[in-house]
Automatic annotation (TrEMBL):
Protein name: Bifunctional apoptosis regulator
A GO molecular-function annotation: ubiquitin protein ligase activity
Domain SAM: start-end pairs: 221-288
Oligomeric form and interacting partners: Interacts with CASP8, BCL2 and BCL2L1 through SAM domain and also with HIP1, IFT57, ESRRBL1 and BCAP31. Interacts with NGFR; this interaction inhibits NF-kappa-B and JNK-related signaling pathways.
Amino acid sequence: MPFPQPEPLTEVVTQERTHHHHHYYYTEHDFNMLQHMEGDSACDGETELLDESCYVSVSHRPKPATSNISENEFSCHCCYDILVNPTTLTCGHNFCRHCLALWWESSHKNECPECREKWEGFPKINILLRDATDKLFSEVVQRRRMEIQANPKISRSLLAFQKYGDNLGRARTTHNKGAGFFFSGVLTALTCVAVVVLVFHWGSGVVEQHDLLISKPVSHWTAQDVGYWLENLGPWTEPYRGAFQQENVNGRLLLMLGDEELLRKHYNIENSVHRRAVLAELDRVKTLGVKPPQNLWEYKAANAGKSLFLLYALKRSPRLTIFYLYLFDYSETFLPFLHTCCPPFTHTEELVESSFLKTQLEPSWQQWVEFLVKYCVLPYQLIAEFAWDWLAIHYWTSRFIIVNAMLLSILEGCFLWRLWTTARLRTLPQQMWNHSWKMLSQGFAFALMWPFVPQFVCNCLFYWALYFSPIINIDLVVQQLMHPETQAQ
């Protein structure tokens, strides 16, 4: 029998060492050859030295890589299938990540589904185990991943689970907190300042506010009050203020004026359009008994509960709130709102002098079309346009409202985009119904509790929603744009 040469074995082992990064693997033929070589050398008394790097003990020879591997060792303890994105908990158990997300979403517990031991921190994917399953069971893993991606319920659970992990990480991390930390600090500072100022004014009991005409009966108006009332009607009343002051027209005389009296030489209002405007505003004063509010602060002073309700309702649900104004406050609030946001295409010169007359006309079909399009697509734009019209009266307040309307539009767009990307757009009617029911119940509760709420608390809520909401919404928009995949509902 010819003696086998060691060179081929050395060459094979050397190649295996190179290809497998110094992990040695041998076949059964190589081990038999080694045993045969050792037996022949002992019998003949001949000693041949092999390279020490090629010598391997027969008792320590490794077995084939996949000889004793079974699928049970790489199976999930929830679905009992091959692990996909295996996640290892602190107790040592491994689960598919989507199985763990479904368990967390249904149980709302941070504990192992098998042994019920709570995990620490946020579970991460075991990369080594994932790579091993991908190599050993590539076809099964690929098939299961396609099934997971096609299931919207699993995708939603994974998004919610990842959002929970991101929020947990932001809460525990003090480094690189980003815009949310900055704006939360600003918000805290502004809140403290606002509360201190409001407590001071509320506790001191000092009333620095002048006697507003919106709460003073017309019969008690002085000649100066009548002049102030004319001034608020517009700059076109300037030629007539001197005649009213010269005649010393107080509230009682004002209520007695009519078209013929205004045409006399004492008042000399020969322009018929101006007379109509004065008489129209005078009719409003007679009906209300006080001066109608003409800016935000006067409206808040005259309608404290209604202004607070509209402020929060327009922010939470602008479409339902505008529809409510159409049904229950058509002439006083809805018509001025519509004419301001959607002015007529053709302006007649006769309507320039009186804003009240202009806002009491029935809108044209062009105005209705423009209004309905904005109402359905961009309701917050209507609020921004209304605030823009008050820019000359409320310089900073109008800007806060406009910025807040833009931020709320972005948040609404992000919400619709999430519904589209997560294939949950068909749930929109159900969510709209739930939202409508929630707003109606909250409005009813507000109407019942309003008489028992202190005025100080109402003022705090009003100024919070007016000036602090934009800061909160800036933080929300930054989170939406930086982490759009983790914002699950």
